[in-house]
Amino acid sequence: MTTYDKMRIILSLTEATDFNQADIKIESVGNQSIKIIHPCGCYFVQHIYAGKIIARENIDQAALNKINIDRLFFAELCKQHKDIAISQQEEQQ
What's the pTM? Predict the structure, then answer.
């Protein structure tokens, strides 16, 4: 599962009807990153000064976006959402 897939799942949690922003915790990780933790245990770390890869002729836009997302974020799912994501991947195959 890619970082993009994990981020999509985590951000979908914020669209849930029972979502309460007050339950989210934000922690500083070093001096260049923040960790955003959802109540279920899913979290992502955003690296603030990661920068972006400049487009090159031999890299298509989708690959460039994946590289930039991997540089900018680290995401980890809680057990519940990881199990849901795995079952969804198995259904797609």
Answer: 0.75
